[in-house]
Write a structure and sequence with these properties.
The protein is built from 2 helices and 12 strands, in the order H-E-E-E-E-H-E-E-E-E-E-E-E-E. It is mainly beta and 254 residues long. It is globular and about 55 Å long.
Length: 254
């Protein structure tokens, strides 16, 4: 009986200690992007889409992100896709593509998919953002999408609030990514010594169809980097439901 009471006290103490570290290590944090020139990161992203009887899609992508320049106003990064794989199920037919596959390993539909994706694999995206995360300039070399000079939002980057955040703080980020209108509402769930953890809710509008978003994200306090982000979207229309889940991580490699 004494041993059980002692164990309970130890567990309670550990739980209290963990809670104290994660919530009160920093009462408030001013989130800003503080990348340094020469920093290199690897971004890994996966996407799964389920459209029921209509089919679905899964995609995995690995990209390199290099910080080209950085000053008090913001930073410029170069983003290049290094590896991509995709499976598409449509009309009972499965189409597979991987940037590692040779032409002789692809079927006719796979080769068509490769012809559409290959230009993206050869291009480098240059994105200039402010310290708060607002996109100032976007260009691609070569310009395979006709986006040069456009002021577009980047889904993996949040526009941070002006004020410092604390547990319970809420900020909203509205984006228009390739015609998909997103409204993301961040609620700070936890602040540790190194990161800000948020729950994410919101909505998405795809060609006039509304969907619900839920997820979470973890931001690095020192650099503002999105260490990880997860978003799940659900849409219902005309008796058909569609779900889509996206997960992304961005890790420093130097």
């Amino acid at each position: 009986m004494i041993l059980m009471k002692t164990l309970k006290k130890i567990v309670a103490t550990l739980l209290f200690f963990t809670f104290t570290i994660s919530v009160t290590s920093q009462e408030s944090v001013l989130l800003r992007y503080n990348y340094k020139k020469g920093d290199k990161y690897v971004m890994e992203m996966s996407l799964k889409q389920n459209m029921g009887f209509a089919g679905g899609m899964s995609m995995d992508m690995k990209s390199e992100m290099n910080i080209v320049s950085s000053d008090k106003e913001g930073f410029e990064m170069a983003l290049k896709v290094k590896k991509m794989g995709m499976n598409v199920l449509q009309g009972g037919q499965e189409i597979k593509f991987s940037s590692d596959m040779k032409d002789e390993e692809l079927d006719a539909e796979g080769k068509k998919l490769k012809a559409q994706i290959e230009p993206l694999l050869k291009a480098t995206s240059y994105q200039t953002l402010s310290k708060m995360g607002k996109v100032l300039k976007l260009r691609m070399e070569p310009d395979v999408l006709g986006t040069n000079g456009a002021n577009q939002n980047v889904m993996t980057y949040s526009v941070f609030p002006k004020e410092a955040v604390k547990v319970g703080s809420i900020w909203t980020n509205e984006q228009d990514v390739q015609g998909v209108k997103l409204k993301l509402i961040y609620t700070v769930k936890e602040i540790t010594a190194s990161s800000v953890v948020t729950d994410v809710t919101g909505s998405a509008n795809v060609m006039g169809i509304e969907g619900k978003l839920t997820g979470n994200s973890i931001f690095d306090i020192k650099t503002g980097n999105t260490n990880s982000m997860k978003l799940d979207m659900s849409i219902s229309m005309q008796g058909m439901s569609m779900t889509m889940g996206t997960e992304a991580t961005i890790k420093k490699v130097n």
